[in-house]
Design goal:
Elements: E1 2-6, H1 13-20, E2 26-28, H2 30-37, H3 49-67, E3 75-78, H4 84-92, E4 96-99, H5 104-114, H6 119-132
Parallel strand pairs: 1-3, 1-4, 2-3
């Protein structure tokens, strides 16, 4: 089964996966990939453009390989703002889309406390897209977990 976990930065997507995934599952998380590919002392949530460039390439390679194994294992994919094209692909793969959203005020507080302030723009973009999207285009928010 493919689980696509979406939501704004600092919403708790990684925490949701930690609560649901097993050790035998595959987790594709850009933050974890970036951290694995950067040197000692790099920030936990590195947004350096060159680091992200390398991490995105690794993420897409991991996705391509993992999607071929969906009949053998569960895959948890964090995708903050999937495009319509990506959502169509996830639908073809019969993914369960989980939206993790504790609310805009909480997300902004978490970003202020734990993340690079540039993530505020990403969160604002996520909330604006959600407000402006047709109802049927947006998956339902996950239930309390």
């Amino acid at each position: 089964m493919l689980y696509v976990v979406t939501g704004p930065p600092a919403a708790g997507k990684s925490s949701w996966i930690e609560a649901h995934a097993k050790a035998t599952d595959v987790v594709i998380d850009l933050d974890r990939i970036t951290s694995a590919l950067t040197g000692p002392g790099a920030p936990q949530w590195s947004q350096h453009p060159l680091h992200l460039r390398v991490a995105h390439r690794a993420r897409y390679a991991a996705m391509d390989e993992a999607f071929q194994l969906l009949d053998q294992l569960d895959v948890y994919l964090i995708h903050t703002m999937p495009s319509a094209k990506h959502m169509a692909k996830y639908k073809r793969l019969k993914a369960r889309v989980v939206v993790v959203d504790p609310g805009e005020a909480i997300v902004m507080q978490r970003i202020e406390a734990m993340r690079d302030t540039a993530m505020r723009r990403v969160a604002a973009r996520w909330y604006n897209a959600r407000r402006n999207a047709p109802r049927e285009a947006m998956p339902q928010t996950s239930r309390a977990w």
